[in-house]
Amino acid sequence: MIELRHLRYFVAVAEELNFRRAAERVHIDQTPLSRAIRDLEDQLEVQLFVRAPRKLHMTPAGVRLLKEARKVFIRIDRTFRAVRDVDARFRAPLRIGIADGIAQPKLCECFVRWREVAPETPLELTEMRASELADALEREEIDAGFSFGLPNGDAILEELAWSYPVMALLPAGHELASQSRLALTDVLSFPLLSCHADRQPGLLQQISAIVQRYTTTPTLAGEAGTLSGYITRIAAGMGVGLGDAGHVAALRRTDVVAVPLREDEWIATYVLHKHQRFGIPGNLQRFVAHSKTLR
Quick check: 139 and 156 in contact, CB under 8 A? Predict the structure, then answer.
C-alpha cells in the first residue's frame, strides 16, 4: 500500500537527484530511503529512476509522478490550513519568501507594522534565490514574496511595493568619493560591477536599464552573486557600483562611500504572489495591500 511517506521520500529524491542529500533532507538513513523508493516502484509497477554510476536520472514516469505528487501535497496543505482556520485558537501563518538578499529598512518596517495591524496572522519568513521564489510561489509552498523582479510569467503577479533612489557606491579614497552629488555619466566612466543574472535577475534588469539610458558601452569590472560579494568587491577597489538607498542605510560601511546621484533614478522592490483564478485569500490580499502602503 502506498503511503504519504513514500511520496514525500520520492519528492525529496526527485528534487535532489541524490540519495544521500535526499536522506539528509527527510531525516532518515540512505538505506531505508532507497528501499522505500524500490517499494514505491514495485507497487506502481514502473521505474521512476535510472540509477547510473554517480548519476541519478528520472524516467518519464518519474517526471509525471513528481508533478502529481506536488499537487497532492498542495491539496493536503490547503486542507490542513482550511481546517485550522475555522479554529479560533489557531491562525495559519502567511509564508513569505525573500529573494535577492533584500535587507532594506522598508522590508523590516513592513513586517513590524504587519505585526501591529494583524497580530492574529503571524508571518513565516524564508530566504531564497529569485528562481527558487518563483518555483515556490507556483507550487504554493509560500504565499507571497519580495524581489527586485522576476522573469515575466503568467502564473506570478508582481506589484510595486516601494522604491529607493539609486546611489553611487565607491571605494573609500576614490577620486569621486568627496563630492556631494554625482552625475551618472561620471560614475559610468569607471569600470562598473554587475550582478549575476541567475542570482539577481530583477536587480540586474533594473540597473542595466538605468545604465543604458546614459551609455551603450559601459565598462564592466565583473559580476557578483550576492550583496556581500558586491560590496566586498567595491571596498577592495575592484570597481564602482550602483545600489539603492535602502541597502546603503542598512550597510553603514566605512570602506564604501555612497554618493547621491544628480539624476532621478530609482530601484523598485516588488511584492509577488501567485495568480489565482478566483482571487487570492483575504489575509494574503490584505498583506499585499499593506506592503504597498510603504511607498
Answer: no
